[in-house]
Design a protein that fits this description.
Uridine Diphospho-n-acetylenolpyruvylglucosamine Reductase, domain 2; 4-stranded mixed sheet; binds FE2/S2 (inorganic) cluster; globular; Uridine Diphospho-n-acetylenolpyruvylglucosamine Reductase, domain 3; Ubiquitin-like (UB roll); binds flavin-adenine dinucleotide; 20 strands; about 500 residues
């Protein structure tokens, strides 16, 4: 058992004991360490002003990912290197990203600048040669600037990343990986006492035992939801169990017929596997939050939180995904769709946790589509999310239709009436389409809130079903995609 959190700052190992479970990484940096270069804006993962880079040892190298320090807990940084904007310059020589921001006039008031610099630092360190505009846009989709405008910032990134990488982080990468390996151990972390603690078990058995002793504890995977309970809802969370150190809980495996995802696998880690199942699925993952959110947020957390507007559950439901839950030493398997009972209520007992998900891949006779409709294209939560899987025979007759929506009910839910109306119909059968549209109206009584009116949601769900059918039918004259085309992302139907 270890009673401290250990990480690396500016080449030195830092060991912190007696940390309150709710201490955020941002508060530690600004209030304890006095590193006020990292800014606090929204406090909820949206503006990117608090972006720092987290380095992890991977195969003898250090891999840096941007995270929102405002919604990360300090304890989650165990075993990592924390890099802030103060650390980038090499003596009086600015880091290439900083230098390019100066030369391209990428900063005015400067409040957002440290966050942009750290997002671009992660891009710079994560690539070896020139990057494209799409890649830069993706890297800064989680950073807001209200005075400079994005063009100079994008140009700074393109120019800094145009040449070979040459900075102090590259030169010391092997040494740093060695230090990170040195501070990583397989001991459980427990800081505090039975009434108030931060714990990070190292094994799944340790997690099961601890959670059964403290079923009232809050499990934290990436904290991209839980972090906001602290900063926005001002909740007191006295008992926190972090899943990020549990051995193999972040594993991802492609077995050929399915993809197995550990509950702590991040969006960033899972995305390529999802893209291989279907380009729409890959694009859905790319559009979840921002790089910062995808670096820490997990599919397990997205499923477990039971949100009616989570993006992955509708897609997982139509793919027929199952999940494994564990309580003490007993495990059970459940279809993802059966996990959701009603708004705020899931099929999960006290002390039970999700260990992983099994996602069947598509068969050659299956067509999959999914669409996320948001107010902004990037870094926004869905108003409506629709996922569709049609199984067709050789004549184009629908053997099975699976349709699920997010944002249409208190839970992610299948459109069983619309599915039944399409069963046995030809994929181009307009009469069956009409019946399905009518049935869809009875499948849901959508909610009315600040994201969208009930009527807008109903109309959108109808339009998305129509679009999925058009694309599945391969209707050659219909242009169904106006935005969201990216290199390497063109569906056969387009
Ligand atoms: C800026 C921003 C943008 C976002 N954009 C999107 C978006 O586009 N689409 C979207 O769907 N979501 C979005 N989210 C919400 C959030 O990122 C996701 O819901 C994410 O998947 C949560 O995963 P996490 O690992 O961070 O969960 P956490 O915050 O760690 O946990 C979430 C909940 O799940 C529980 N939990 C976590 N792991 C387990 C487990 N293994 N077993 C049982 N319970 C568990 C926790 O106790 C908690 O109740 C966004 C959030 C932010 C801050
Ligand atoms: S302060 Fe806005 S993302 Fe953290
Ligand atoms: S420079 Fe002022 S907010 Fe970006």
């Amino acid at each position: 058992m270890r009673e401290t959190v250990r990480f690396v700052r500016r080449g030195q190992i830092v060991e912190v004991g007696k940390v309150d479970p709710m201490t955020t990484l941002l508060d530690y940096l600004r209030l304890t360490e006095g590193s006020t270069g990292t800014k606090e804006g929204c406090g909820e993962g949206d503006c990117g002003a608090c972006t720092v880079a987290i380095g992890r040892s991977r195969g003898g190298k250090v891999v840096y990912e941007p995270v929102n320090a405002c919604i990360q807990l300090l304890g989650m940084a165990d075993g990592t290197e924390i890099v802030t904007v103060e650390d980038l310059a090499d003596g009086v020589t600015l880091h290439p990203i900083q230098q390019a921001m100066v030369e391209k006039h990428g900063s005015q008031c400067g409040f957002c600048t440290p966050g942009f610099v750290m997002s671009l630092f992660s891009l710079y360190e994560g690539t070896d040669g020139p990057v494209g505009r799409d890649e830069v846009n993706d890297a800064i989709a989680g950073n807001l600037c209200r005075c400079t405008g994005y063009r100079p910032i994008v140009e700074a990134a393109l120019s800094a990343c145009a040449g070979p990488r040459d900075d102090k982080f590259r030169k010391t990468a092997e040494d740093m990986a060695g230090i990170l390996d040195f501070i990583t151990d397989d001991r459980d972390i427990f800081i505090g006492d039975d009434d108030r603690f931060f714990a990070a078990p190292a094994s799944i058995d340790g997690l099961a035992a601890l959670y059964s002793r403290h079923p009232d504890a809050i499990l934290v995977a990436g904290a991209t939801d839980v972090g906001l309970w602290i900063t926005k809802q001002l909740r007191d969370l006295p008992k926190i169990i972090h899943l990020g150190r549990v051995k193999d809980l972040d594993g991802i495996e492609d077995t050929g017929r399915e993809v197995l995802i550990g509950a702590a696998a991040t969006y960033a880690g899972v995305e390529p596997y999802m893209r291989a199942i279907d380009p729409d699925l890959g694009e859905l993952f790319r559009r979840i939050g921002s790089k910062q959110v995808r670096a820490r947020g997990t599919v397990g957390g997205n499923v477990a939180n039971g949100s009616p507007i989570g993006d992955t559950p509708p897609a997982l439901i139509v793919l027929g995904a199952t999940m494994e839950l564990r309580r003490r030493d007993r495990s059970r398997v459940l279809a993802v769709e059966d996990f959701y009972i009603e708004y705020g209520k899931q099929n999960r007992a006290a002390g039970e946790f999700v260990t992983g998900l099994l996602i069947p891949k598509l068969r050659p006779d299956q067509v999959f589509r999914c669409y996320k409709v948001t107010k902004r294209f990037d870094q926004d939560i869905s108003s409506v999310m629709g996922a569709f899987r049609f199984t067709l025979d050789e004549q184009g007759v629908i053997q099975e239709a699976r349709i699920a929506y997010g944002g249409m009910a208190g839970i992610p839910k299948r459109a069983k009436g619309a599915e039944a109306a399409l069963q046995g119909a030809g994929i181009r059968d307009a009469a069956a389409w009409s019946k399905a549209f009518v049935a869809l109206r009875d499948d849901f009584a959508p909610m009315d809130d600040h994201r969208a009116s009930a009527n807008y949601r109903a109309e959108t769900a109808h339009a998305l079903l129509g679009k999925a059918l058009l694309e599945a039918a391969g209707t050659p004259t219909s242009r169904t995609r106006l935005v969201g085309r990216r290199e390497g992302y063109v569906h056969a139907a387009e």
